[in-house]
Write a structure and sequence with these properties.
283 residues; alpha+beta; Pnp Oxidase, Chain A; 2 domains; 3-stranded antiparallel beta sheet; globular
Length: 283
């Protein structure tokens, strides 16, 4: 039996455990059983679903082999070391299209890094990022105001730095650590404080721009235009040109790596499948 067959068997077993847990949770809720018992089942369901996702991704393939195995999973290749920058101007139209589609489709939730006029590094979660052109490589970010009518620091920073200024968009792996970083960086803090201080991550400065060490990839972009949205909308649309993509040089082509996505208004996970794990964010 090869690794793919073993992976399929273990995955099928774990997914059936998730299905059984879902049914048990619903049954216990309908009977108004002990909330603590229900919470334990929900935790078991999340952990089992997360384990299934790891098995299906191939991260735990060494655990399915005969004999010795590595205690740590293979994991994804992060930006903490062995980084490589790819200039989009040097790519063909097809290469640019493939890279942008791989990183931004289906639409992930990302962390966007900007700098204020006073030199404060801002880090904010964004899900409203979309590709609008492959040649030239253009993307848009919709930046809305808060419930209190305050503009997001990301928009204020882009506007203050002006056309041609740079920002970084970090593509996150579908891990609980990434989901927790999204939760932390969504916290409301004064504009003169940095969200980087809220997360347990190393900020690497390279070519005068910050790099999130745990990200699976980063897009270095420059601001082209900012437009207020019509019809009384409180949001503005920032148009960015992607100048380069930074990824681990250990990638062998565009692997099918799970990205962290917003699967509901306040839920993050690797997919919208009800069988996958999810992390609820309190925005």
């Amino acid at each position: 039996m090869d690794i793919a067959q073993r992976r399929e068997i273990v995955s099928r077993f774990l997914r059936r455990c998730v299905t059984y847990a879902d049914a048990s949770i619903e049954r216990k809720k309908s009977r108004n059983e002990d909330p603590l018992d229900i919470s334990n089942w929900e935790n078991y369901r999340q952990f089992t679903s997360f384990s299934a996702s790891e098995v299906e991704s191939g991260e735990l393939d060494t655990w399915l082999e005969e004999g010795d195995y590595r205690a740590e999973p293979n994991g994804f290749f992060a930006l903490s070391e062995n980084r490589e920058s790819f200039n989009l101007e040097d790519m063909s139209h097809e290469e640019r299209r493939n890279w942008l589609a791989f990183l931004l489709m289906p639409r992930p939730i990302s962390l966007v890094a900007t700098m204020s006029a006073n030199g404060v590094h801002n880090l904010a979660p964004m899900s409203s990022i979309g590709v609008v052109s492959n040649s030239p490589p253009l993307i848009t970010i919709s930046l809305s105001k808060s419930r209190e009518g305050k503009e997001r620091d990301t928009l204020v920073n882009l506007r203050s730095q002006g056309v041609g200024s740079s920002c970084m968009i970090f593509i996150l792996p579908a891990t609980l650590e990434s989901a927790k970083n999204v939760q932390l960086t969504s916290s409301k803090i004064p504009a003169d404080e940095s969200e980087w201080n809220l997360i347990d991550e190393e900020m690497i400065i390279e070519n005068e721009m910050p790099i999130l060490s745990s990200a699976m990839a980063a897009l270095r972009c420059k601001l082209m235009e900012i437009h207020p949205l019509p019809g009384g909308s409180l949001a503005s649309l920032a148009i960015l040109q992607v100048e380069s993509i930074i990824s681990s040089n250990n990638y062998s082509g565009l692997n099918d790596i799970q990205k962290l996505m917003q699967v509901d208004f306040n839920k993050l996970g690797p997919s919208s499948s009800k069988n996958d794990w999810n992390f609820e964010v309190d925005y």
